[in-house]
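Input sequence (276 aa), recorded before submission:
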Amino acid sequence: MKQILIKSFVIAVVISISSCSFSQNKPAPEGPMVLIKTKYGDMKVVLYNQTPLHRDNFMKLTKERVFDSLIFHRVIKSFMVQGGDPNSKHASQDQHLGDGDLNYTVPAEIIPGIIHKKGVIAAARNGDEENPERRSSATQFYLAQGKVYKLDDVPSIEQNLNSRASESLFLKMKSDKIDTLMLFQMARNKEGYDKLLEKIKQNATRHFDQNPVRLTKQQIETYTTLGGIPHLDGAYTVFGEVLEGLAVIDSIAAQPTGKGDRPLENIRMTIEVIKE
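Predicted structure, token format:
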């Protein structure tokens, strides 16, 4: 994405995680709907009104037929299926994919409570170090498959979240001190540079030691029943979900892949608006 994402799959995570916004037993969320058609079946997708920038961008591109004949170029079983690279429409079988995009990005709309349950659609993006605002790719998106977790997995999930959240906060704090760090570098003051960097790292670690991330009851219920990708919560913009056709994600994710996790046979998509 672009780092799921465009280049090397960097995940920079969660400063805060909240409760699930939707569960299997609640009414379908309100919003426009699109139909993603593939050779393995169709997926009816609702786009959340809570993320209007991503909703409107996806609708615009769908109406302009931008996604038609693009492929799912990155597929990882028990994780996600990713597509939307404009370069994939006419790509040769050995062509590297994942760097294509339009000439703009979309501001992040990371909403507390909207999590990476199975079937959500989310925006790919570059990693935090080069993209601290977590702006989304204009076209690249992924559909979450993930897996169903056990209750015994919760402590390790939380540990992973805290570790990644601490790293994310470290990068943000480092960015805030970049001018001072550059002065140390220009003065060839390695000792001053290293001391400041270590202080930033300690502050980031201390923050999550004192305010650890904890999964909510609703998150635990969702990830131990429906499944999903909890370690991406709070890091990427989730802007919709599959209402019908979850099995299509499973079918795509099960296909054999080669270099760069690209399916050996092209899996093309067509997307059309079915409700505005």
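Checked by second reader. The radius of gyration is 19 Å.
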